[in-house]
Task: inverse folding
C-alpha cells in the first residue's frame, strides 16, 4: 500500500522526466501549475501521432492501392492473353497491338509512379520544414508562456499591494470619518454654547434696558410731577411760570441731544442754568443748534422732534373746556399747536392767522400774521416752531416767521385754491396740494416749484413722512407718492371724499377723515387694505375740509362733528372714549392736540375756538 | 469538455500505416506485391485484413492457403490484442510504415488463438467488455443492456462508426459521482521482457485516503521499473495509443478516454532505445527535433 | 455475499489444501509459480483415451435421442428462447465458434474456415486416440473466481482445435454447456503464459456457486471453494475429481 501513497512531488519529478524526451518544453511546467497540463499534453501528442502516422500516409496509400489495382488488372489481361495464344495469325497482330497499348499504359503508369515519388519527396521536405517551424513555435510558446507566468506573478504582487493600500486607505477613511463625527459634535456643541451666550447677553441687555427705562421713566415722571406741581402752585410771578415752561423746553432739548456725549450735555445744562437769566439767548442758541443739526440729517432731526412725544406716554383725554373765545371775525378753518406745545395758530376765512400762547390753561393772543388775500385753509409749524406755513384760497402758500407778521415767502403757481401745505421731510422743502389737481414740491431757498405732480382728482389734504407724500382726494382715494421719483407708489381706497389726513408721531399710522362720517386708521407698515374704522352715533363730518387728528401718543383720535361736539375714540379698541358737546354752536372745522398731550383746541365755522384739557 | 470528445475521436480514428508483405516461404504463382493499409488502432488485425487476404489470394492457390496469420520481426502477432497495442508493444520505434509479414502456413498453435470467423472476434470483444464491466460495475451495466445494445457496440467497432459505438459505450463509462470513479480500473500492462503477456490486477481509481490515483501511482504499484529513479536515465517508455501521457494524468480519466473499445486501458511498456533517435523516431515524436 | 466470491488469499489457501490432498491421494496437481510474481497456478497433466466425434454439432445432437426436443433450438442459436439474453449471446457466440458456419455474413472467410475444419474433422473421424491434457487452475481477479484453462494435444504434439476439443466432450455435457448458463468453452490466451488455451468461462461461476456455498454455510460445513468448483466443471472437460478428495476433506 505504500506504493499507493506516492508523494505528489515525486510523481511530478518523474513525470517531468518521463515527458522529457517527447516534450522537453512542457517539462518545466509539469508541476501542476495548470490542472490540465496532462490533458493538453495528451491532446497534443495525439495530434502529433496522427500527423506522423496517419495523415502522412493517407494519400500515399490511396494512390498505391489504385496503382496496384490498375497493374493487377493489366497483368491479369496480360496473363490472359499469354495463357491463350491464338493460332489464328490474324489475331496476333491485334494482340500485338494490344500488347503495345498495354506497354504504353505501363510506361504511363511508371511515369506516374516516378512523379508520385517525386511528389512524396516534396511533401516530405515540406513536412520537415513544418516540423522545424512547429518546434520553433513551440520554443516561442514556451518563452511566451514563461513571460505570461511572470506577468501573472507581477499582477498578483500588484494586486496584493493594492489590497494592502486599500486596507490602509480604509483605515484612514475610517479615521477621517471619526474625526468628522467629532467635528460635527463639536460644532453642535459650539452652536449650543453660542445660543446660550446670546440668550444670556440678550437677557443681560433686556435687564439693562429695563433698568434704564425704569430709571428714565421714573425721572420723567418725577419731572412731570414737579412740573405739574409747579403749574398747580399757581405762582403769580410770570417770570417764574415762564421759566418753568422753559425748563420743560430745556428738558425736551436735553432729550433731543440724548445720544450726544456727556460734555455736550453738560453744556446744555450750562445753557439751562443760563436760561433762567436770559431765555432769549437759550432760544437763539437752540435755534442755531437745531439748524446746524438739520443741515446734517433730516431723519435725525425728525427723530429728535419725536422725543418730546415719547415723554408724553399718555395723552390726556380732554374732559372740559378751559377757555372759549371768539378768535376770528369769520369762521375758523384751521388750528395747529406748535411742536413745543406752547403756541397755537388759528387761521380763518378772515384771511389772517392768529398766534396764541398757551399758558396755564388759557390762550393769550400773541400775534396776528396777515398777507393772505383770501381765507386760510391749512396751517403748519415747522419742527422748531419758528416758521409757520399756511395754505390759502388765493392759490398760494405762505411762509411766516413767528415774530414777523409779513410773510417771508409766498409760493404761487397753483391755479386753484391751495388746500394743504406741509413741510417736507427734506429741509427747505414744502409740499402743497391744491384743488387744481396737482401736488407741488417747493424749494424754500429758491421760492420756486421744483416738482409738480398731476393727480386725477382734487387734493383735499396731504401729509409728509420720510421720502413719501400721502395725499387725500375727493375721488375717495388716498395716494402715496415717492417724493424722490414723484410717482404714485400705492393707492388706498376710502369710503368717501377724503377731508383730512393725519400721521401719527411715529409715522406708522395714517388717519383719514371722509365725508361718509367715518374715520379710518391705516397701518402704513402693513401695506395692506387692513384698516380700522371709527364711527359714532351723532358724529357727522361737517364739511369737505373737516380735520381729524391722532393724539401724540397715537392712542386716541379726535374729530369735531357737524353738531358742535368733539368725539374722541380709543385708537386701539375703536370705541368712543369721550364726547365733548355743547361748547360749539356750529360745525367744528378742525381740532389740534398739543404734542405734550395736555391740550386740545377745537375751532368752528362760527369764529369760536375752545381750549380743552382733562383738568 | 470539447477536449475530451476530441481525445475520444483521436483515439478512435488513430491509424497505423502498415505494409503487408507475403512470407518468402509461401508458394506463389508470381511475385506478390506488398499491400499497404492504414490499420485502425482500436480494431483487431483479423477484422480489418480481409483486403490483404484478398490481395494475396491473387497470387496464390486456394489449396495453399490455411488460416492467415501475421508476424512482425519473428513475433507472431496476437490478433486478439488491439492493433494499436501490437504496434506500440512490438514496433513503436520502427520505421514507418509498419512492415508485417503475412503467413498462410504453419499456424503457431501454441502462441496464437484461432480466428476462423468474425464471430470469434465478436465473442472475444464482448467477453472483454464484460470482464471490464465486472471490474467497473460488478457487471451491472453490461447485464442491464439488451442484446441489441451489445450488437450496437460490436457493429460500431466492426464498421468503424464512432458515434454509434459511443452512444452505447457512454453507459459503460458512467459511474456514481460520489465514488469518484469505477470500482476497479480495467487495465492491462503489456511488456515484452518476460513470458507473462500482461499484468492485470485490481486497482481502484481513488486511494483509500481519497487521493486520485494517477498513471504514475498505477505504475509504481504494478511496474515500478517503468518509473525512472530521480536523476536516472529513463529506461522505459509508457505508451498508450502511441503516445506517452504524463504520469500525473488521473487514472480514472485515462480509463474513460484512453481505453480501447473493449473497455480496457492497454498500457505498453517499451524498452527505450539507447541509440540516437533514428529518422523514424523523428517521425513518431516530431517534438524531439525542437529540443535543444 | 462475501462468501460467494473468492479472493486471492482464499484461492491460494484452497489450492494449498487441494495440493495436500492431491499429494496424499497421489494425484499429480502441482503449483507453478510465475517468475517475478507471487501469482501462479495449479497444473495437472493427464493422458486420456478419447473418441472424437467429428460430426457437426447439430448432427450430434440429433443422434442423441434424449436431445430430440432441442433440435429446433440447435439449428440456430438466435432462437434459443429458453435462455436469458446474456447467456443467449454467449451461447450464440459459442455455437458459432463450435460450428464455424455462419450463413449471414462473411461468407467467404467462413468458407475458408469451413474447409480447414472439415479437413481436420475428416482426419479424426471416428478414431479414438490417446490425448495429452494439460489443466491449469487460475484465479480471475475480474470475476473473483477460479478459472479452468486446458489444452489438449496428441502424443505427436499437435494441438487440438476447438472443434476437436468440442468433439471430445461427452454429448451430454455438450448440451449442458449449450443450454445452461454454467459455462462454456472458448479459446483464450493463458494470462500468465500468453499461450493459446481453452477456457471454461468464469462469468457465471458465481451464480452457480452461490447456492452451494450458501447451503454449506447454512449447514455450517467447511467448503473448499476450489475443490467444489472443480468437481463441478472438471468432468465437462474430462477432468474427473476423485470422490476421495471430499471424503478426506
Result:
Amino acid at each position: 500500500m505504500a506504493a499507493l501513497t506516492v508523494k505528489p512531488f515525486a510523481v511530478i519529478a518523474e513525470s517531468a522526466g518521463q515527458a522529457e524526451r517527447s516534450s522537453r518544453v512542457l517539462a518545466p511546467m509539469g508541476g501542476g501549475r495548470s490542472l490540465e497540463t496532462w490533458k493538453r499534453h495528451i491532446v497534443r501528442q495525439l495530434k502529433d501521432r496522427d500527423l506522423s502516422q496517419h495523415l502522412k500516409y493517407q494519400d500515399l496509400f490511396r494512390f498505391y492501392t489504385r496503382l496496384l489495382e490498375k497493374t493487377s488488372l493489366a497483368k491479369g489481361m496480360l496473363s490472359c492473353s499469354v495463357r491463350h495464344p491464338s493460332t489464328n495469325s490474324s489475331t496476333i497482330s491485334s494482340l500485338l497491338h494490344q500488347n503495345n497499348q498495354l506497354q504504353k499504359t505501363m510506361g504511363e503508369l511508371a511515369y506516374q509512379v516516378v512523379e508520385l515519388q517525386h511528389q512524396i519527396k516534396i511533401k516530405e521536405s515540406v513536412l520537415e520544414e513544418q516540423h522545424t517551424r512547429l518546434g520553433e513555435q513551440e520554443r516561442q510558446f514556451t518563452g511566451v508562456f514563461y513571460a505570461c507566468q511572470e506577468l501573472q506573478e507581477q499582477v498578483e504582487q500588484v494586486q496584493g499591494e493594492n489590497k494592502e493600500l486599500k486596507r490602509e486607505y480604509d483605515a484612514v477613511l475610517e479615521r477621517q470619518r471619526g474625526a468628522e463625527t467629532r467635528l460635527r459634535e463639536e460644532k453642535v456643541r459650539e452652536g449650543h454654547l453660542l445660543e446660550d451666550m446670546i440668550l444670556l447677553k440678550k437677557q443681560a441687555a433686556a435687564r439693562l434696558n429695563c433698568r434704564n427705562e425704569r430709571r428714565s421713566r421714573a425721572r420723567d415722571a418725577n419731572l412731570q410731577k414737579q412740573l405739574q406741581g409747579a403749574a398747580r402752585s399757581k405762582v403769580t410771578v410770570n417770570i417764574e411760570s415762564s421759566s418753568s415752561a422753559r425748563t420743560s423746553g430745556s428738558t425736551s432739548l436735553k432729550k433731543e441731544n440724548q445720544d450726544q456725549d456727556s460734555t455736550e450735555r453738560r453744556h446744555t445744562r450750562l445753557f439751562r442754568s443760563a436760561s433762567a437769566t436770559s431765555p432769549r439767548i437759550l432760544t437763539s442758541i437752540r435755534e442755531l443748534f437745531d439748524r446746524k443739526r438739520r443741515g446734517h440729517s433730516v431723519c435725525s432731526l425728525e427723530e429728535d422732534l419725536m422725543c418730546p412725544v415719547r415723554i408724553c406716554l399718555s395723552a390726556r383725554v380732554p374732559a372740559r373746556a378751559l377757555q372759549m373765545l371768539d378768535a376770528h371775525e369769520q369762521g375758523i378753518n384751521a388750528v395747529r399747536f406748535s411742536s413745543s406745545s406752547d403756541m397755537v395758530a388759528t387761521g380763518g376765512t378772515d384771511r389772517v392767522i392768529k398766534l396764541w400762547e398757551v399758558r396755564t390753561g388759557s390762550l393769550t393772543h400773541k400775534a396776528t400774521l396777515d398777507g393772505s388775500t383770501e381765507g386760510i385753509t391749512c396751517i403748519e409749524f415747522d419742527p422748531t416752531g419758528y416758521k409757520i406755513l399756511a395754505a390759502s384760497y388765493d392759490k398760494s402758500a405762505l411762509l411766516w416767521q413767528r415774530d414777523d407778521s409779513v410773510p417771508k415767502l409766498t409760493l404761487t403757481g397753483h391755479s386753484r385754491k391751495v388746500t394743504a401745505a406741509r413741510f417736507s421731510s427734506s429741509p427747505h422743502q414744502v409740499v402743497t396740494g391744491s384743488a387744481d389737481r396737482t401736488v407741488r414740491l417747493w424749494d424754500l431757498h429758491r421760492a420756486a416749484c421744483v416738482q409738480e405732480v398731476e393727480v386725477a382728482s382734487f387734493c383735499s389734504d396731504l401729509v409728509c413722512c420720510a421720502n413719501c407724500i400721502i395725499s387725500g382726494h375727493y375721488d375717495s382715494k388716498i395716494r402715496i407718492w415717492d417724493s424722490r421719483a414723484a410717482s404714485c407708489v400705492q393707492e388706498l381706497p376710502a369710503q368717501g371724499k377724503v377731508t383730512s389726513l393725519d400721521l401719527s408721531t411715529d409715522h406708522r399710522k395714517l388717519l383719514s377723515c371722509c365725508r361718509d362720517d367715518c374715520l379710518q386708521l391705516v397701518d402704513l407698515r402693513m401695506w395692506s387694505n387692513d384698516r380700522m374704522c371709527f364711527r359714532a352715533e351723532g358724529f357727522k363730518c361737517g364739511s369737505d375740509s373737516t380735520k381729524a387728528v391722532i393724539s401724540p401718543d397715537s392712542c386716541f383720535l379726535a374729530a369735531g362733528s357737524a353738531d358742535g361736539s368733539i368725539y374722541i375714540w380709543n385708537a386701539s379698541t375703536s370705541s368712543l372714549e369721550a364726547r365733548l358737546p355743547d361748547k360749539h354752536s356750529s360745525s367744528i372745522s378742525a381740532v389740534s392736540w398739543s404734542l405734550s398731550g395736555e391740550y386740545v383746541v377745537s375751532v368752528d365755522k362760527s369764529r369760536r375756538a375752545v381750549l380743552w384739557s382733562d383738568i | 469538455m470539447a477536449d475530451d470528445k476530441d481525445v475520444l475521436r483521436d483515439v478512435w480514428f488513430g491509424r497505423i500505416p502498415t505494409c503487408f508483405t507475403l512470407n518468402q516461404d509461401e508458394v506463389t504463382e508470381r511475385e506478390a506485391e506488398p499491400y499497404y493499409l492504414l490499420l485502425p488502432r482500436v480494431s483487431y488485425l483479423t477484422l480489418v485484413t480481409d483486403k490483404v487476404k484478398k490481395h494475396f489470394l491473387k497470387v496464390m492457390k486456394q489449396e495453399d492457403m490455411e488460416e492467415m496469420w501475421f508476424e512482425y520481426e519473428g513475433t507472431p502477432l496476437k490478433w486478439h490484442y488491439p492493433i494499436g497495442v501490437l504496434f506500440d508493444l512490438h514496433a513503436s520505434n520502427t520505421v514507418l510504415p509498419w512492415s508485417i509479414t503475412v503467413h498462410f502456413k504453419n499456424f503457431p498453435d501454441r502462441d496464437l488463438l484461432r480466428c476462423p470467423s468474425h464471430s470469434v472476434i465478436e465473442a472475444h470483444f464482448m467477453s472483454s467488455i464484460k470482464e471490464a464491466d465486472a471490474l467497473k460495475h460488478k457487471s451491472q451495466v453490461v447485464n442491464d443492456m439488451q442484446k441489441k445494445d451489445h450488437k450496437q457496440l460490436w457493429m460500431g467497432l466492426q464498421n468503424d462508426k464512432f458515434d454509434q459505438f459511443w452512444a452505447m459505450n457512454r453507459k459503460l463509462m458512467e459511474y456514481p459521482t460520489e465514488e469518484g470513479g469505477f470500482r476497479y480500473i480495467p487495465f492491462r500492462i503489456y511488456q515484452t521482457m518476460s513470458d507473462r503477456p500482461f499484468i492485470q490486477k485490481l486497482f481502484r481509481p481513488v486511494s483509500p485516503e481519497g487521493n486520485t490515483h494517477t498513471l504514475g501511482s498505477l505504475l509504481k504499484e504494478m511496474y515500478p521499473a517503468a518509473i525512472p529513479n530521480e536523476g536516472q536515465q529513463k529506461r522505459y517508455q509508457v505508451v498508450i495509443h502511441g503516445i506517452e501521457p504524463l504520469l500525473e494524468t488521473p487514472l480514472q480519466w485515462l480509463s474513460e478516454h484512453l481505453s480501447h473499445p473493449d473497455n480496457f486501458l492497454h498500457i505498453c511498456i517499451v524498452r527505450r532505445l539507447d541509440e540516437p533517435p533514428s529518422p523514424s523516431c523523428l517521425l513518431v515524436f516530431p517534438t524531439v527535433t525542437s529540443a535543444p | 455475499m462475501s462468501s460467494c466470491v473468492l479472493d486471492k488469499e482464499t484461492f491460494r489457501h484452497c489450492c494449498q489444501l487441494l495440493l495436500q490432498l492431491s499429494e496424499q491421494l497421489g494425484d499429480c496437481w502441482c503449483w507453478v509459480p510465475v517468475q517475478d510474481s507471487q501469482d501462479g497456478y495449479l497444473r495437472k497433466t493427464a493422458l486420456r483415451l478419447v473418441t472424437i466425434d467429428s460430426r457437426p454439432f447439430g448432427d450430434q445432437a440429433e443422434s442423441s435421442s434424449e436431445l430430440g426436443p432441442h433440435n429446433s433450438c440447435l439449428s440456430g442459436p438466435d432462437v434459443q428462447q429458453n435462455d436469458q439474453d446474456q447467456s443467449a449471446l454467449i451461447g450464440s457466440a459459442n455455437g458459432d465458434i463450435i460450428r464455424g458456419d455462419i450463413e449471414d455474413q462473411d461468407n467467404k472467410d467462413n468458407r475458408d474456415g469451413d474447409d480447414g475444419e472439415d479437413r481436420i474433422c475428416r482426419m479424426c473421424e471416428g478414431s479414438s486416440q490417446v490425448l495429452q491434457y494439460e489443466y491449469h487452475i487460475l484465479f480471475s481477479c475480474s470475476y473473483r473466481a477460479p478459472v479452468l484453462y486446458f489444452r489438449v494435444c496428441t502424443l505427436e504434439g499437435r494441438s487440438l482445435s476447438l472443434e476437436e476439443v468440442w468433439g471430445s466432450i461427452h454429448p451430454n455435457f455438450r448440451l449442458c454447456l449449450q443450454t445452461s448458463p454454467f459455462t462454456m468453452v472458448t479459446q483464450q490466451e493463458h494470462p500468465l503464459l500468453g499461450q493459446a488455451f481453452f477456457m471454461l468461462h468464469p462469468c457465471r461461476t458465481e451464480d452457480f456457486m452461490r447456492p452451494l456455498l450458501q447451503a454449506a454455510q447454512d449447514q455450517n460445513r467447511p467448503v473448499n471453494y476450489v475443490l467444489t468448483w472443480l468437481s463441478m466443471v472438471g468432468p465437462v472437460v474430462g477432468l474427473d475429481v476423485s470422490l476421495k478428495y471430499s471424503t478426506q476433506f
